[in-house]
TrEMBL record:
It comes from Niveibacterium umoris. Belongs to the truncated hemoglobin family. Group II subfamily. This is Hemoglobin. The keyword Nucleus does not apply. GO terms for molecular function: heme binding; metal ion binding; oxygen binding; oxygen carrier activity. CDD domains: TrHb2_PhHbO-like_O. Keywords: Heme, Iron, Metal-binding, Transport. It comes from the Bacteria.
Length: 131
């Protein structure tokens, strides 16, 4: 897959409604599935703001509207996540939850592979705990 301005991952995924559906499925899984309880515990009681922030971020990160930057400024992902202990377990739970959410989203194998690789790099970069 070779994204271009007319062929962004955002467009290939299905645009705004597809990104929102992906994020909603991600947080539904995190909230309901016992395997993601540790990850869920790092979030506030209400996931509404978390849902919006991830939706805004993914929209721009995937090549769509840069909603996060418009509302919050530069993402500074690592700095914004420093207050939370993120190690291998948290990274892996986040990725597993996102992969499960992606299972519910129609996409080509090439797009899926591209997103999985990019999401791993981003999630791994967020680690601030050893091991």
């Amino acid at each position: 897959m070779h994204p271009s301005p007319e062929n962004t991952p955002y467009d290939l995924l299905g645009g705004d409604s597809a990104v929102r559906a992906l994020v909603d499925r991600f947080y539904d899984l995190m909230d309901l599935e016992p395997e993601f309880a540790h990850l869920r515990a790092l979030h506030p009681a209400s996931l509404d703001e978390s849902r919006d922030k991830l939706y805004w971020f993914l929209s721009g990160w995937l090549g769509g509207p840069d909603m996060f930057v418009e509302r919050k400024g530069h993402p500074m992902l690592r700095a914004r996540h420093m207050p939370f202990p993120i190690g291998v377990q948290e990274r892996d739970q986040w990725l597993a939850c996102m992969h499960r959410a992606m299972d519910a989203q129609p996409m080509s194998p090439a797009l899926r592979q591209h997103l999985e690789g990019a999401l791993f790099k981003t999630a791994d970069w967020m680690r601030n705990q050893p091991g």
